[in-house]
Amino acid sequence: MKDTAPTLSSVKPAGRKFTGTDRRAPLRGGLQGCGEYGAGQTAGRFYPIACVALEVTQRCNLDCTLCYLSDRAEMTYDPPLSVLFARLATIHSHYGPGVSVQLTGGDPTLRKVEDLEALCREIRRLGMRACLMTNGIRASRAFLTRLAAAGLDDVAFHVDMTQERKGFNSETELNVVRLAYIRHTRGLGLRVLFNTTVFGGNIVELSALARFMRDRPEVAFVSFQMQADTGRGVLRERPDAITQDSVMRAVETGYETPLHFDTAAVGHSKCNRYASVVTAGGRAVSVLSAKRLTQKVIAALSRAEQTTDGHIDTGDSVRRMARRNPLLALRAGLHLLRCVLRLGRGLLRGPVRRQSVFIHNFMAADALEDDRCASCVFMVATANGPLSMCVHNAQRDMHLAAPDRVDGPSGPSWWNAAVPHLSAGPDLPDLSDPGLAPLKRLKGQMRAMRRNLKDVS
Ligand code: SF4
Fold it and tell me: What is the pLDDT of residues 15-50, one digit of tens each?
């Protein structure tokens, strides 16, 4: 039995292997290398990575017009739990406790709920956070209740017009779906996130959608992801009208206030823009309006930090920072109080909540920028370790074909996605061999091609 993995010379190096004592140093180095480690930078300063996706299946019950999966996704089998546990151990060894692990796919809810419960328990055991990334179709209240009991921290619903849900003709009509999903989470203690792909088909509705999100106190995190030419989806190039600036301005219009996207940074500014607001009763106020104060707080928090082994323990660090810098803490507290008071009549109409707003700018598969890949804050767990999501999306077939080594009591075994069980050796599968890995469903561009062929014949 062979016990070494084959070399995939064409695969870009997967992440940066952690070898030292400061887990944040590799990301910090990447950001410093491209001039993105300014006074407002939080990545590499307070955490070694923003999140890591763990793809638990390549199957999906939708066929989004901007799907990032590969044409070959429907030729694969789901990885067994032993493989996923091994990938979780690798994530933990790279980034330590506190990192957010996104259980994703495809749609993860197509796995058995028992599998997802086991993953949530393992993530919790390792001191990391579990986030379920789902289109919500199968995420019933009963389903989410079980996962919450098993340790799920966050649920992120992806709902938008790229999904072509039957009977819905606009983002506004889809709000019924969003409200139903929010109801499913009520009282479960989950942090609720919403993801929306911003594309040519909904850019004119973006402000209205942002306003809808602003007015949902249950939603803690709103992410707008800009159309990117990658994966199997039938839509390709991003229209000129969709830029970071146009998306920021449309979101500000929806929130009816400036959002100060330039105050605090989460990774590379061409990748991510971040805002933080307090909301109440249909009003929002940006808490990042005081740029110099925010950056002084970031510097003081950084000095008060005692660990570099994973994510910041915000509560501890804030308390330490306040003890060492009482005047700064007082100024920050007064600023927050002023923000809340500026909510005015909103305070009479609803609870005060904090909400994060994020704009994510994935790259096209054929236009990867090295500096952004080297300072990526959004990783995917692969057989060869964590890898930038943009790089992974551009190389999906290679990674689907790369075997995972799993060490068991009777020695190593290997997983490759073209066969439904662990194998004794790491031989590469041939995903283009239909006898080995039959295509189960046509999706994305392949489905469109077949439709076109039918129309012609
Ligand atoms: S996934 Fe892509 S767009 Fe997102 S942070 Fe990484 S390199 Fe930037």
Answer: 445 566 789 999 999 999 999 999 999 999 999 999
Q: Give φ, ψ of 192 to 5 degrees.
A: -105, 130
Residue 364 falls inside a structural domain: yes
- 281 falls within a domain: yes
CA distances, 182 to each of 144, 157, 176, 309 (Å): 11, 9, 10, 34
| CATH number for the domain harbouring residue 119 | 3.20.20.70
- Provide residues with CB under 6 Å of ligand 1: 267-268, 271-272, 360-363, 372-373, 376-378, 388-390
Residue 374 CA, ligand 1 centroid: distance in Å:
9
The parent domain of residue 369 ranges over 25-288+343-404
Q: How far is the CA of 217 from the centre of ligand 1 (A)?
A: 28
Torsion angle of alpha carbons 393, 104, 127, 356, nearest 10°?
80
- DSSP H helices, 283-313, are 291-304
Assigned domain for 264 exists: yes
Answer yes or no: is 20 within a domain: no
85 DSSP assignment:
H
- pLDDT at position 433 is 65
Counting the structural domains of the chain, the total is: 1
Average pLDDT over residues 282-303: 97
Question: Residue 113: pLDDT above 80?
Answer: yes
pTM, to two decimals: 0.93
